[in-house]
């Protein structure tokens, strides 16, 4: 049981969008402050969502297949030649090709370079009829020449009304020993297990997968692993 809990939490940790976005913000600021060679290295070490064909744009937020809502703030890095006059067009469309929103990504640093430059744009859109879609990042091409064109497509998912209703419910701590995080009271036996001490090392909230649960911090995961080892001895 404990091993399954550890495995489940390890899978969930990859979906911690709030933590990831915070790290992304720090990384973007670091890229602005550092020199170009170091910035290139930093970009490579970030999420591997790079256009492999041209290696010219890296979307930091949202991530591929992430559930998005309006307003949507988009952040990333693109090489200077992707911009024209410090911007390039971005649009959001559903899986049927209907354009839901369009905007202009603005450079957040000097774009007159071939190195990566941070950008951001915010899109507002109505709830679509489809569950999936794409964000399309177009290379600004004032010449309209095909050889100068380029685009990168990022697949995304949309939050449905059912998802929104679910997320409005409060998560609460339940179980005889306060070992569960759920949307409603759950009755359990009152046997206290050693791993319950680990729950004091983390917080409870609705997780990125939409379920109530314990936030799988590194300290929490290590505590569960150490407890599992001590029990098996």
Structure at a glance:
This protein has 233 residues and is α+β, with helices and mostly antiparallel strands.
Layout of helices and strands, plus pairs?
Layout: H1 2-13, H2 17-33, H3 36-45, E1 57-61, E2 67-68, E3 72-79, E4 87-94, E5 99-107, E6 116-123, E7 132-138, E8 151-158, H4 161-168, E9 172-174, E10 180-182, E11 204-206, E12 212-214, H5 218-232
Parallel strand pairs: 2-8
Antiparallel strand pairs: 1-3, 3-6, 4-5, 4-7, 5-6, 7-8, 9-10, 11-12
Helix pairs in contact: 1-5, 2-3
Describe the structure.
By secondary structure, the protein is of the alpha+beta class. It folds into 2 domains: 2-13 and 165-232, no CATH class; 55-159, Immunoglobulin-like (Sandwich), CATH 2.60.40.650. The chain is 27% helix and 29% strand. It contains 5 helices and 12 strands. The chain has helices at 2-13, 17-33, 36-45, 161-168, 218-232; strands at residues 57-61, 67-68, 72-79, 87-94, 99-107, 116-123, 132-138, 151-158, 172-174, 180-182, 204-206, 212-214. The strands form 3 sheets. The protein has an 8-stranded mixed beta sheet. A two-stranded antiparallel ribbon has the order 9-10. A hairpin with a 4-residue loop joins strand 4 and strand 5. Helix 1 packs antiparallel against helix 5 (218-232) and helix 2 runs antiparallel to helix 3. It is elongated and about 70 Å long. The two termini are 16 Å apart.
